[in-house]
Amino acid sequence: MGRARRWARSRLAGSGIEDGEPLAETLILLISELVTNAVVHTGCPAVLRMLFGGGAIEAQTVRVEVADRSARPPRQRHAGGEDTNGRGLELVAGLSDRWGWRPEGAGKSIWCEVDREQPEEAVCGRGASRGPVATRG
């Protein structure tokens, strides 16, 4: 996981998203969850991709994709209060603006997107009313 986080921090800094910025911390947490899920549930290494889209940097969307070798669809569980596992995709759904999965080769790719907020929105934090859209494809 450390290698994935270091790589992601380097890519983020190279695209103008500084370490310690709330967006960077959210993306690092999402990457940690998705990579951990892929490795734990498949027992194999995962492929991490980060894509930057949009026009002006204020409107930029960051897409994280983690591909693994399992064709089995992800299953979002609902962990109980004392459970120590089962919150990964709930966390991804809560922190990202959109997430989903798609078949890729013999396996699958799970992705999430986070929209870079306007500076005045960033002061107030992520809006609770902005729910994720889980899609396949």
From TrEMBL:
It comes from the Bacteria. Gene3D superfamilies: Histidine kinase-like ATPase, C-terminal domain. It comes from Streptomyces clavuligerus. One of its GO terms (molecular function) is protein serine/threonine kinase activity. Coiled coil: none annotated. The keyword Cell division does not apply. InterPro entries: Anti-sigma-factor_SerPK, HATPase_C_sf, HATPase_dom. Pfam families: HATPase_c_2. Keywords: Kinase, Serine/threonine-protein kinase, Transferase. This is Regulatory protein. Residues 3-110 form the Histidine kinase/HSP90-like ATPase domain. Residues 67-87 are annotated as: Disordered.
